[in-house]
Amino acid sequence: MRGNAFEARVKADGGTELMRLLHERLGGPGEPPREVAVPDLTAAGPEGRAARTALALREATEAGGWALLDHPMLALEVAGSPAYLEPDAVVVHPDGTWTVVEIKSFPMIDGSADAAKVGAAARQSAVYVLALERVAEVTDGARVGHRVLLVCPKDFSNLPAASVVDVRKQRAVTRRQLTRLTRVEEIAAALPEGASFDPERSPEDLETAVESVAAAYAPECLSACELAFHCRSRARAEGAVEALGRGVRGELGGLTTVAGVLAAAAGKEGDPADPAVAALRRAAALRAEALEGRAGCR
Amino acid sequence: MSLINTLARLEAVESGRARPTATVRHRRLTGRPLVLVPLTTAGEAGAPLGALVGTDRDAPRLLAVAQPRDRDLRFAFLAELAEAVLPHIESYADVVEPAERGETDPATGKRVKVETELCVDAAQIVVPSRAGIEFVRLLGRSMRFRRTADDDPDTPYPAPARVPLLGRWLTHYGERARVPGSSLLLACTDLLNRHWATGQSNLEDQHLGALLAWIDPPAGESGAEAALRAELARDAAGQLLCPPAGPATDPDFDNRLLAPAIEKYDRARASLAAAEDGLAADARLAELSGAEREIRALLAGVLRPTWDAVWRGLDLLRELPEGARTEDRWTRDRWSFTAHRDRVRSGEPPQPRRDDAVTAARKLAARETAQAQLEAQEALDDPLVLAGRRLAGEAFIGEVSAVEMAYSESKRPSPRPLVTVRTDERPQLGEGVKIYRSLDGKPQTAQFAGYGPADEEGGAPSLVLRITDRMGRGKEPAPGSVPEPGDRIAWTLFEHDQRGGPQLPDAEETPWTHGGPPGGVEAAELPDPMTPEDLL
To answer: Which of A138, B101, B102, B246 is deepest in the core (most CB within 10 A)?
Structure first.
């Protein structure tokens, strides 16, 4: 794939090109670094690699030079269980700053790239920054930079171009979300006895197991989750208004089902003193008037 | 999404069919739009794979790139695209009518009228989806700086003639598509979404097949069922019955059908290159063209459903009568088309990579004006859109119950009649707020003068409005310029016409706060350097 070829190209020659870009965008004055340590990070298993990465980071920080960690392994606790993350690269500066490098294959054309893709890269990098902060807390003289280096192909070529992305906002959001996550054990405890999501099981068993879990469907799920179509059909069967978009709920107050909203709009249900119901009735009346062509005026 | 449109969506859920959100068509559709359905290669951001293009729905022209990584084949594709698109554009460039344009005389600084010409109609391009518009921009960007062998004989890999010209035109169309209400380059999904509300979310509405399924479901089927089939149904070979409208393709198509076909083509090409004598070469050439035909057939198979869907969408839109003020916006598109034609003809360089500060500010201001103008014009053209504004308190319809003559207190008193209007709507009025109504297509201004007495049944108090203009020069108002009791009139709190913003300095006088005057325009725009692994 082109993405892998591009990443290999950016990191070639002990990261010369990558360090040049990093120095250009983030470094101080002077020449780009010539002496860059590239520690070996191979170890057995993710725990081993994470420990090896932490050791390499400490050594590099103590050494006080430039170091490039290619595909380090970081651990982060998510909802009470460890998750292992593998950034494309982490660079240790001589002053002890650690910078996350994210290499992406979407092009940066005339200095700007697809905003949605850059946003996704920034959120991804923020998670790496958070995981690195856990290591930095126990390392003397280390701090994690909140500016990450995004490397993309320049224009229509395979040459790299880099841009600095400030991920403080994404980092704060992710940090807050991580503290709010329900722990895996609590989710498991809420499941009925014997529920299993093993893909080896029969479709009927799986169906029952999936049915037993509550889902908060929103259309955004469609681009992220393989169960989205299932949740969508369930939300539609229930007549949930969220199936039309998250924003829809805001205007409808306490009305949550399609049938309920339409009945309120038609004047069959609902309290006319409720502002949401009153607005709906006015909307329905105005819409009907316009559609029937009764709004005739000059 | 406004409440009234949410309601339309809910109605659509209940009835199983899309519901109208407009009673007239708010965009111009020319008699002969050029439809372009592009496809890109997965994993090769932006590399074109193929396209269907043409103005005749029964005879689209198929363009295909058998090996998207091959620069020569890509250039051949772009050259062929130029052959398909440029004649369409140029056929409109020479049909002109005389027109006048206001210009500032550089010698005196006064506004003067200049005789000029305006294209009678402009070439329109329709793509399936918003991603298609982005792809048109990308194509424009990649082509407009290319050098042909004529421009520069020493350039490596010269681009085919006319490719840079196509790049400039596509850039112009892509840029114009960002102006609200413009109809030069349209996305079929945007057009349909403007006029109908489906029973699904905005996100799902980007799927052209599902959208059409809601608007015009097959007989005996609900929109939701038909849309689900458009999204998910696959044939016996595991291919989507309704392929994505592009430019991205379905991964199952890429992996199961396209990748093996391209591999076969590559092998045939390699063996042709290795052929030792003429006889063997002939046989292998036949194999190569067979492999190429296969790829073309595959691409035609996934492009054709989208092509037909776009035309079906256009048919549905043509059933709506055109909004009265659409013509006005289309005239602006024609001016934009004519101006770009003139820039190309006078040999100006291609559009720069990044606009200078003044140009950027000007574009932004123009888009803001166009947005406000579009909102006002749509509301005036369409009672259903006006209903949304009425619900928001930005407009109201009322019946005139009394008119009292009054005069201004100046030396030459002019008529300032007070009109009492009864309405049960709740416009957001305050003392002195200006309101407008349309009088023979021109806006007439009035001022809110206060509330009148409440009516006998205890309803909302009536509104007293003071008319302030368009009543002629005389002491008595011109006939028909003052409402009469019994008239039902739509009043708006927003202006009907948008005035442009403040003047901006010339580019040469850009202040230092905005980067100073742009320097070295000539040197700045060199063509992109060629590398062995270019994408586009």
So the answer is: B246
Say if CB B358 and CB B505 are below 8 A apart.
yes
Q: Residue B511 burial (CB < 10 Å; 0-12/13-18/19+)?
A: exposed
Note the Cα A76 to chain centre separation in Å: 14
Length in residues, chain B: 536
Q: Which residue of A has its CA nearest to B355?
A: A110
**Cβ neighbours of B9 in A, within 8 Å:** 244, 248
Residues in A closer than 8 angstroms to B204, CB to CB, are: 219, 222
Q: Does A203 touch chain B (CB under 8 A)?
A: no
What sign results for the dihedral spanned by CA atoms A206, A211, A216, A220? positive
Contact B354, A110 (CB under 8 A): yes
pLDDT greater than 70 at residue A210: yes
What is the CB-side half-sphere exposure of residue B203 using CA atoms within 13 A?
Answer: 14
Q: How much is the pLDDT for B458?
A: 64
Would the CB atoms of B535 and A157 count as touching at under 8 Å? yes
Alpha-carbon span B199 to B211, nearest angstrom: 10
Alpha carbons B317 and B164: distance in angstroms, whole number = 34
Put simply, the chain A residues between 257 and 296 with a CB less than 8 A from any chain B CB are 258-259, 261-262, 265, 279-280, 282-284, 286-287, 289-291, 293, 295-296
What is the arithmetic mean of pLDDT over B252-271? 92
B103-145 pLDDT, tens per residue? 777 777 777 888 899 999 999 999 999 999 999 999 999 999 8
Coil, strand or helix at B273: helix
Facing residue for A283 by CB, picked from B9, B391, B528: B391
The vertex-B461 CA angle with B415 and A296, nearest 5°, equals: 70
CA distance A114 to chain B (A): 10
Q: How many CB pairs under 8 A join A and B?
A: 131
Residues 6+ apart with CB under 8 A from A221: A227, A228, A231, A232
Between CA B243 and CA B245 the distance in angstroms is 6
Q: 3-class SS at B221?
A: coil
- Pair A75, A82: CB distance under 8 Å: yes
CA neighbor of A40 nearest in space, from A31, A29, A32, A49: A49
Q: In chain A, count H helices and then E strands.
A: 10, 9
CB-based contact (8 Å) between A159 and chain B?
yes
Express each pLDDT in B382-392 by its tens digit: 999 999 999 99
How would you label A127-146 residue by residue, b for 16+ Cβ within 10 Å and e otherwise? bbbbbbbebbeebeebbbbb
Q: Do B397 and A297 touch (CB under 8 A)?
A: yes
B45: distance to nearest CA of chain A, Å? 6
Residue A150: CB atoms within 10 Å: 23
Counted residue by residue, chain A has a size of 298
CB pairs under 8 A, 24+ apart, for B66-72?
B66/B262, B66/B265, B66/B291, B66/B292, B66/B295, B66/B296, B67/B262, B67/B265, B67/B266, B67/B269, B68/B41, B68/B44, B69/B44, B71/B157, B71/B534
What pLDDT is attached to residue B522? Answer: 47
Pick the residue of A233, A286, A289 with the most B CBs within 10 A to test the interface with B by mutation: A286
**Residue pLDDT, tens place only, B146-164:** 888 887 787 777 888 899 9
- ipTM for this prediction: 0.86
Contacts of B224 in chain A (CB under 8 A): 236
Q: Which residue has the tokens 């009678």?
A: B120
Residue contact B387–A289, C-beta within 8 A: yes
pTM of the model: 0.91
